[in-house]
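pinging the channel bc i need a second pair of eyes. not urgent but kinda urgent?? the chain im working w is below, pasted from the shared doc
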Amino acid sequence: MILKCLIVDDEPLAHKVIENYISKHNNLELHGNCFNAIDALSYLLENTIDILFLDINMPELSGLDMLRTITQPPSVILTTAYSEYALESYDLGVVDYLMKPIRFDRFIKAINKVIKVRKPAINAAADSKVVPKKKSIFIKVDGVQHKIILADLTYIESRGNFIQLHVNDKRYLTADTLTKMDKRLQDSGFLRIHKSYIINTNKVKSIQGSMVLVDDKMLPIGNSYKQAVLGKIGM
């Protein structure tokens, strides 16, 4: 997990201290430096960051006032020489409050808090992107819907305005196109190898030149599909 950081502080020395600490942490990456809250707000409009190191006492607009203007702030670690704002800052949802001069061990503790807070959200986002592979599809043959178990489907061939599915020792002819079927089978272990053929990659036994052996059937690989086939099957 790499966390993108922005430092907002009107003191150059404070930037150097935090920059040094960031450089020592494998999970942190410095993406910007701002020396006042106005510039920081402009930066956040155009960039996405994970951790905001924010000073409280700055000219024109304080760090706390800046936070009040952000509807969806990143994880915020306040850096200040004044302890009296601690309670107010936590009401604004900051992760931690570091007193200057900032010690490295205290800095690490604050980063660990950020990681602990962010991990569940990252895992949830990753889980939400996982789309289970289809195990079966239904196709219509002579007005009847047939369930096709994809693990049993060897290959599909184009036949004019129809396509034929080869499922074990059975054949199913349905009014459809390979292009539409290719989209239906996306991310399910099937690969188009020719303008007339889609194969089940789990059924491939060998590739010989421009031919692929799928179970006991030798099928041609189209010239425009060769690179994709070799990249996907890797034989």
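so The chain has a mean pLDDT of 89. and The first helix runs from residue 12 to 23. — does that match what u expected or am i reading it wrong
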